Amino acid sequence: MTTDRARYPGVPEDFPVSAITSAIGGAHPKMSLVEEDGKFYAPGTAPSEVTAAFHMCDDLVSQMVPYCLRKLATFEGDQQATVKAALKGLVAKRWCSDAQCVWIMRRVVRELQWPVGDSALEI
Prior knowledge:
Largest sheet: 2 strands, antiparallel
Order of helices and strands: EEHHH
Helix content: 40-55%
Shape: elongated
Distance between the termini: 24 Å
Strand content: under 5%
Number of helices: 3
Number of strands: 2
Number of domains: 1
């Protein structure tokens, strides 16, 4: 199933949109959905949820850039090791999905213009 990106204005095309796993108790079969503007979405994929997640992740990018610059000395100037450690810490915090953490760090690397390979951005 493809995602209709027109439903997410202001959210970059490369921002990950993925459903959040949910469970509903009870004996009868149920489906967890979010209703927005007369349409139903899997949890985590409604336009307002994606927009909120994007703004939070964009804010994290602005915080991670100076953080990585500070941590660079800890890793003796090794940009690849700095990015790996920052990504590992970000994933451990569970503030967003793993895919969003990778998206954040890709943006950080791009803003810092660091020549970091894809291996540093693997979880």
